[in-house]
Amino acid sequence: MVYRILIDPMLKGLHRRVVSQISPGQLVLDVACGHGTLARMIASQKDCKVTGIDLDAAKIAEANRMAQKGNLKGLDFSLMDAIDLSPLGDKTFDVAVTSMAIHQFSPEAGLKVLMEMKRVAATIIIADYAWPMPGSLYGRLARAIEWIAGGEHHRNFLQYMKNGGMEPLLHKAGLRVEKQDQQGKGTMTVSLCGI
């Protein structure tokens, strides 16, 4: 509830940028979809069939409830671990997206997630924190949000930043950045990647 009320509105511009990279009618996988905000936006604005996956059963239940409430078609939310997408076939999707999730994983897990996304989709779109993080008010706010998240989440964020953000992971995963732009006053980056 807190995420949906406070964080989702802050990510609206980032989500719009992700959606703008998707063509109408594509098959899309939203990895670590949370409450399904981005998946619903893609389905409603691009008339895409979107599958959202997350490992949190409560978030998947909320995503399904919100999709039914909005009477949106072409949405499917499932409980699945992003590290192991073996139930999904190779190149099943046109596009795999993930928004503000990779920094939450350990470096090893983040790499596995990217490798799985690469296996199941032809194009990858990743929205996450920029590196280096600006020292501006927006950068301090982002750091504060991650500090409040605490625990393993915060430790993984710190490791993500220490390791140089997304670029090293993309390189290790063999993903080629075709287009990249900054969002959120330079605190976030949207990377459109090819294989």
Helix content estimate? 40-55%
Average of per-residue pLDDT values: 92
Number of strands: 7
**Spatial gap, N to C terminus:** 36 Å
Using only C-alpha atoms, the radius of gyration works out to: 15 Å
Biggest β-sheet: count, sense, barrel? Answer: 7 strands, mixed
**Backbone shape:** globular
Question: Which residues form runs of ≥5 with pLDDT under 50?
Answer: 1-6
Q: What structural class do helix, strand and pairing data support? A: alpha/beta
The total of helices stands at 8
Quote the beta fraction: 15-25%
Instruction: Give, in order, the helices and strands.
Output: HHEHEHEEHEHHHEE
Strand order of the largest sheet: 3-2-1-4-5-7-6
Structure write-up:
The protein has 195 residues and is of the alpha/beta class. The protein is built from eight helices and seven strands, in the order ααβαβαββαβαααββ. It has helices at 2-10, 12-20, 37-46, 57-69, 107-120, 137-149, 151-162, 166-173; strands at residues 27-31, 49-54, 75-79, 93-99, 121-129, 176-183, 188-194. β1 (27-31), α3 and β2 form a beta-alpha-beta unit. α5 (107-120) crosses α8 (166-173) and α6 (137-149) crosses α7. The radius of gyration is 15 Å and the shape is globular. The model is unreliable at 1-6 (pLDDT under 50).
Q: What's the short version?
A:
Helices cover 45% and strands 24% of the residues. With 195 residues, it is of the alpha/beta class.
List the helices and strands and how they pair.
Layout (H helix, E strand, L loop, with lengths): L1 H9 L1 H9 L6 E5 L5 H10 L2 E6 L2 H13 L5 E5 L13 E7 L7 H14 E9 L7 H13 L1 H12 L3 H8 L2 E8 L4 E7 L1
Parallel strand pairs: 1-2, 1-4, 2-3, 4-5
Antiparallel strand pairs: 5-7, 6-7
Helix pairs in contact: 5-8, 6-7
